[in-house]
Amino acid sequence: MTARDLTPPSFRLTANRFGLLALASLLVLFLALPLVALVVRALPLGLAAWMNPNTLAALQLSLVTATLATLITFAIGTPVAYLLAREQFRGKAVVDTLIDLPMVLPPAVAGIALLSAFGRRGLFGPALSVLGIELPFTTAAVIVAETFVAAPFYVRSAKAGFGAVDKKLEQMSALLGVSNLATFFRITLPLAAPSLLSGLLMTWARALGEFGATIMFAGNFPGRTQTMPLAIYAGLESNLDSALALALILVVVSFGTLFLIRAVSPKGITLG
Q1: What's the pTM?
Q2: Taking the chain, what is the end-to-end CA distance rounded to the nearest angstrom?
Q3: Which of 52, 102, 151, 178 makes a 20 to 30 Å CA pair with 159?
Q4: Phi and psi angles of residue 161, each rounded to the nearest 5 degrees, phi first
Q5: What span, in angstroms and rounded, lies between the C-alpha atoms of 143 and 26?
Q6: Which residues of 162-183 are buried (b: 16+ CB within 10 A; e: fewer)?
Q7: Which helix (H) or strand (E) holds 135?
Q8: CA–CA dist 31, 111 (Å, integer)
Q9: What share of the chain is helix, strand, coil (3-state, %, to 5)?
Q10: Over the range 142-151, which residues count as b (16 or more CB within 10 Å of their CB) and which as e?
C-alpha cells in the first residue's frame, strides 16, 4: 500500500481538480480585487469625506426610503406571496411572471415605465394631479421606484417560505377549532418567518442600491431625491472622496446584509 492509497480522495490534487481550483481562483480574484482596491482607496480618506453634508444627507435619505419601501413591500407583498404559494387560479403563471419581471428589467425601462404610469403626462398622472399628488422628482418617487424594483425579491422568498410549511400542521389546528386567521399567525407565519426575514433583508439591500429607475423617475436632487448610489454618480465629477466613502459604506452594508440572509435562510430556500 502506497502513501497515495492512504490519501483521502477529497485531498488528492488531480489534474481536473487543479483546473477547477485555478478557474475558481480566477473568478474569486476578479470579484475581490475591485472591492479590495475600493477599500484601500476609501479607508485613508479624511474626516471631511465621511462627514461631508452631502454624504450624510444621501446616507440618511437612502436609509429612510429603503426602510419605507421594505415596509410597504411587506404589507402588500405578504398576501400576494401567500396566495401564489397556496392557491391555484387561472392566470397564476402570468401573475407570477409579472411579479418577477422587475428583477430582470433594465433599470432604464423600469424608470420609463414608472414615468409612463405616474408622470405628469402618464396614464394616471392627470388623475393624481386632480387629487393634488405629484409623484415624479419627489422623495415619494424614490420610495415608489425602490418598491417597484425590490418587491419581487421579498415575494419570491416569502412564497417559497409559505410553500414549505407543512399543511398537516394547519389541518390539525383547524380540527382543534382554531380559526384560519389564528392558524396563520400562530403556525404558518412563524414557520415561514425565516424566509420572510431573508426576503425583507434582500428587499432592503436592493432598495438601498437602486439607481436606474430612481434617477429617471425621481431625479438627482441633493437632500430630496439623491440617494447614495446617485450621490456616488454625482461625486465622480465633483467630489470623488465623498463618492468613495459612500461606495465603501454600500459595500459594507451589502456584505453584512448578505451574511445575515444566509444566516437566517432555511436550507433549500434560495435567495431571490
Answers
A1: 0.85
A2: 50
A3: 178
A4: -65, -45
A5: 38
A6: bbebeeeebeebeeeeeeeeeb
A7: none
A8: 28
A9: 75, 0, 25
A10: bbbbbbbbbb
Residue tagged 396566495 (cell numbers): 83
C-alpha cell at 209: 442600491
What pLDDT, in 10s, does the model give residues 169-224? Answer: 888 888 888 888 888 888 888 999 999 999 999 999 999 999 999 999 999 998 89
Residue bearing cell 400562530: 186
Distances in Å between the alpha carbon of 184 and those of 82, 98, 189, 191, 193? 10, 26, 6, 10, 12
Phi, psi of 165 (to 5 degrees): -70, 130
pLDDT of 99-110, one tens digit each? 999 999 998 999
How far is it, in rounded angstroms, from Cα 188 to Cα 182? Answer: 9
231: cell is: 450621490
Q: How many CB atoms lie within 10 A of CB 108?
A: 12
Distance CA 135, CA 114 (A): 10
